[in-house]
Amino acid sequence: MTDDDSRPRPASLGDLFMSFTVLALQGFGGVLAVVQRELVEKKGWLTREEFVEEWAVAQIMPGPNVVNLGITLGGRYFGWRGSVAAVAGLISAPLVIVLVLALLYSKFAASTQLAGALRGMGAVAAGLIAATGIKLVPALKKNALGVPIAALVAVATFVAVAWLRLPLAWVLAGVGGISCVVAYRRLA
Fold first, then answer.
1. Is the dihedral of CA 18, 80, 49, 182 positive or negative?
2. DSSP 55-91
3. Of the candidates 103, 127, 105, which has an alpha carbon nearest to the alpha carbon of residue 114?
4. Regarding predicted confidence, which is higher, 182 or 132?
5. Choice among 34-43, 49-58, 119-128 with the minimum mean pLDDT
6. What CA–CA distance (Å, rounded) separates 9 from 184?
7. Planar angle of CA 32, 71, 87, nearest 5 degrees
């Protein structure tokens, strides 16, 4: 991936910090949909193809996906200082919010209305993730696997994790390993 000077990029470390703070504050229950919309569609810091590749790398690295993405994106533009700014933006405000919510939850944990609200938020988060996945399908046309094989990989992963309840590490090693071999052979 080359960093073309004509492409949009964070203006400063402060811009990077604030951008990731805004991402974190929008991402209740998961940030995939928010990150894709903000970094690809609004800011243009990544193309769809770059986002798919960067997100894939972020998912296989240990730790939270969006933190890994922040580290790589911050590092791309500002080195280690950019990585620190992106991660600090991701965790500062949410940390304060989570601490306040934990205090409130301890007082209202028995509330049936709260339990219902939390279930509803889970459904919304699942819908956002599904919608983002569908939105990113066109980027697979340029992927080494292509749309049919990528769809097969997605279905196999879903079946292995959701229905067979296999450990994620096994699925990642098995399905991910096969995908890597197929992609390598197609690129060779």
1. negative
2. HHHHHHSSS-HHHHHHHHHHHHHHHHHHHHHHHHHHH
3. 105
4. 182
5. 119-128
6. 30
7. 80
Q: Where are the domains of the chain?
A: 13-139, 143-188
171/158 Cα distance (integer angstroms): 10
If DSSP codes are grouped into helix, strand and coil, which group holds residue 98? helix
Q: For the residues of 102-161, what is the DSSP string, one character each?
A: HHHHHHHTT-HHHHHHHHHHHHHHHHHHHHHHHHTGGGGGGSSSHHHHHHHHHHHHHIII
Whole-model pTM: value is 0.60
Burial 19-38, CB ≥16 within 10 A → b, else e? bbbebbeebeebbbbbbbbb
How far apart CA 92 and CA 85 sit, in angstroms, is: 10
At position 18, the amino acid (one-letter code) is M
CA 88 to chain centre: 17
Q: How high is the pLDDT of residue 141?
A: 85
Average pLDDT over residues 79-89: 96
